[in-house]
Write a structure and sequence with these properties.
about 210 residues; mainly alpha; 9 helices; globular; about 0% strand; disordered N terminus
Length: about 210
């Protein structure tokens, strides 16, 4: 006869303090990545990519555009993934938007080779999104849709985001030269591979 599971082996959820640290880490690292990205004149995918394209085309600041662009997606986050997820994502988006606006006061970039910048951006933002996903949050928009599809169908969140990225980069060719778009795509590819390979519900319990 099998023994009952040891309570110490039961999955444990993150504490509120752990969630706060994870969301703060994710928002900060994503903000650093976005500041490096705009320093290089790159574009990216997901909702941030849409906000960057709008920012480049209009001259409006990225931070307020990113915050506003995400607003319509919170309803989906609430309906499909719950109030807690929606609120955490709202906090993450708001904090990242604030940090993107204020980080240039204390962080400046000099000469960065496009290849190094693209890979670093992919790792920075990829690790940021992993932290947010593990703590039940996202940076809104397509991230919410991607997580919903992964939970509902098993289709990896990273692949959903990659498809959306292709559409964003096609539009970016009208605003940026081909070389810049190519380097930008490398960064987005690294980011999405980080998510696709590491964000596994079947391996991580919290």
């Amino acid at each position: 006869m099998s023994q009952p599971p040891d309570p110490q082996d039961s999955p444990k959820r993150h504490s509120p303090i752990e969630d706060a640290q994870g969301i703060a880490y994710g928002a900060f690292m994503a903000a650093v990545g976005v500041n490096l990205l705009t320093h290089l004149g790159f574009v990216t995918g997901q909702t941030a990519g849409l906000a960057i394209l709008i920012s480049y085309a209009t001259g409006w600041g990225f931070a307020p555009v990113f915050f506003v662009v995400n607003l319509p997606f919170y309803w989906l986050g609430y309906k499909r993934l719950g109030l807690t997820f929606m609120l955490k994502s709202f906090v993450a988006v708001g904090l990242m938007s604030l940090l993107v606006a204020i980080l240039p006061r204390g962080l400046e970039f000099g000469q960065v080779h496009p290849a190094v910048g693209a890979i670093l951006i992919g790792f920075l933002v990829g690790s940021a999104l992993l932290a947010l996903f593990r703590h039940g949050a996202s940076l809104g928009g397509i991230g919410i849709v991607a997580l919903y599809l992964q939970d509902a169908t098993g289709f990896r969140a990273g692949w959903t985001q990659l498809i959306f990225d292709i559409c964003i980069f096609a539009a970016a060719l009208f605003l940026r030269d081909g070389s810049t778009v190519a380097w930008s795509f490398l960064g987005a590819l690294v980011l999405n591979l980080v998510i696709a390979i590491n964000h596994r519900r079947d391996r991580y319990i919290v």
